[in-house]
Each structure stands twice: as C-alpha cells, then as structure tokens.
Specification:
The chain is an alpha+beta fold. The chain is built from 11 helices and 8 strands. The longest helix is centred in the middle third of the chain and has 20 residues, at about 95-115.
Length: about 300
C-alpha cells in the first residue's frame, strides 16, 4: 500500500520517512523506532539514559557549551559525511534539565544526517517538521512511553505530581507536561503568570495552548500565592476579550503555587489539589542515573554535572 504523504512534509522529512523503512507508519513513528533502536544498541535498561554511549553510537565526537550563545543548542558536522562525526554545542546559561533535553534533541538530528545526507549536509534553513520530529525523539529518549505510563498511572493530576514526575525524569515541568499530554494521559494546560510593575498579574506563557491573554478574575488567589506562598486549588473562570470586543469565558479546575518569580498553574480536566493527602510517591526516588558514576565523561562536562 502506498503511503499517504502530507503536503506539510518537506523533501527532507519525506525522504527520511521513506528510508527508515516500511515498518514506519508515519514520520513520527520513524523517529520513535530509531530512538528505540538506539536504546537497544546501547543496551540501556528502561529508565537509564547513558548519554555517553548514545553519543558514541551516533558519532558525536565532542560536546561543549558556550557563553552568549543565541541558541539552546546546535549540532555541527565536523566533515561532509556522517562518518566524519559531529560536535554539539550547548548554552551554558541553560538549566541542567534544559541542557539534557537539548542534548537529546540535537542527538536526534544525526538520524537525518545519516539517512538523508544529500539534503541535510547542504546549507539550508531550519526545517520546522524536522525540529518537531527531533522533539518527539528527545521526549522518547528521556521519558520513554512505557515508563511514563507506569509512573503516572493512578497518580492525581496536580502540580505536585507534575513536579514529582519532572524531577524523576530530570526534565523541566514544561517538557513533562507536554509528554503527559502527548501520551493522552492528561488533558491539561500548564501556564505561568508574572507580576507586573503595577501589581497586576499577566500570563507569561502557556503550554499546549495558543491564547496567552487570558485574565484571572480572582486576583486574591494569585496575590496570596505570591505574598504568602499559599498554594491554592479549586474552580475558576478565565476571561478575555476577542478581536471584536466580545467577552470570552472558560471554566477551569486548577492547582497553583508560587515558584520563584512566577505563579505556576496547572489547569484542565480532572485537576485536583497538591495539598490533598496523596502520599510521598516521588520523595527521595531516583529513577535512573544521568551518566556512569565513574570518571568524568564528555557529557558530564558539557552538562556541568561533574562530580
């Protein structure tokens, strides 16, 4: 049966998909298959992320980081063929969890260099579809579907669970919530609110959403979280005016708390309170080591995680 190729796919991603083989039902599945094969080749147990072995298998010769870097990360071919190898550069100012995700993302670009060298090694603009596929690959590398399903099963949908899972997988809250949404485990959005100089609160960003100008009518809840460090959960209505000046209102269930200089809010279907007696599932748990404990590896140096 001939594959139905989406018009959204670039030539690069179409050829990449085709060359992965008949087993790949979609470009997304193609990336997942390659990541799972990489894990198998590295003999990584479920939950382990042996970056050094992955780098070796994917011909990444060097990982370093720079100050004043305009990107979270970048992969650079050393020569003109896949076998010549690559170097990965990371942003020194990024957090450890962000650097780990970026490293996994850049690692996935090597699949495109290997399978479609006649296009990938040419000077070309960033391919948004390739970037999306590398994000999918990075998520599977750091947060394997089977393991996420197992760890999230039966757990309450709340900010505490999200933060516990993020700590367990050593990723950011944003990356963790997107993975839970992608796997259809949670139907939520995760937003952060900042306090303006006039004392009002504004939505800074929202994960899995497209509209960022929702207003929080009951500012007392945000104020208490900000000034008293008091977490709050319950029901609320968000409001905004559309381009025609019509008031829009959406009901939500939420769980919010102050985290450093912002208010973090988890809202959506089935959200409950982190303060409920959910036990201490994630306390003092370590799911997997980032790297082998012995020696100073290049990935440890690059991620600034030397012992």
């Amino acid at each position: 049966m001939a594959r139905k190729v989406s018009s959204e796919l670039s030539e690069l991603t179409q050829v990449f998909w085709r060359r992965v083989g008949a087993c790949a039902a979609s470009p997304e599945y193609a990336v997942l298959e390659l990541v799972r094969e990489l894990r198998k080749s590295a003999k990584a147990k479920l939950g382990q992320v042996p970056f050094d072995k992955y780098l070796e298998l994917r011909n990444v010769m060097d990982v370093s980081y720079r100050h004043d870097f305009g990107f979270e990360g970048k992969i650079e071919p050393i020569g003109t063929t896949y076998m010549d190898g690559f170097r990965i550069v990371l942003n020194r100012s990024s957090s450890g969890s962000r650097s780990r995700y970026t490293l996994a993302h850049e690692l996935c670009h090597t699949f495109f260099y290997e399978l479609v060298p006649e296009i990938k090694f040419l000077a070309r603009p960033i391919d948004p579809v390739e970037e999306r596929l590398c994000n999918i690959g990075a998520a599977e590398l750091l947060m394997p579907e089977k393991l996420v399903m197992r760890e999230a099963k039966g757990q309450p949908i709340c900010l505490g669970t999200l933060e516990g899972l993020a700590a367990l997988f050593r990723v950011s809250n944003e990356a963790m919530v997107l993975r839970l949404i992608q796997l259809k485990l949670w139907q939520v959005e995760f937003s952060s609110w900042i306090r303006l100089s006039n004392g009002k609160f504004a939505m800074e960003r929202v994960m899995n959403g497209t509209i960022k100008d929702w207003e929080w009518p009951n500012t007392n809840q945000l104020e208490e979280a900000w000034t008293l460090g008091k977490p709050t959960a319950g029901h609320q209505f968000l409001t905004r005016y559309d381009n025609q000046g019509v008031l829009q209102v959406i009901p939500i269930r939420f769980d919010l708390a102050r985290r450093q200089n912002r208010i973090c809010v988890l809202w959506g279907k089935g959200v409950t309170s982190s303060n409920a007696n959910h036990g201490s599932l994630f306390q003092r748990r370590v799911l997997h080591p980032l790297l082998p404990e012995k020696g100073r590896t290049q990935a440890a140096r690059a991620l600034n995680l030397e012992p």
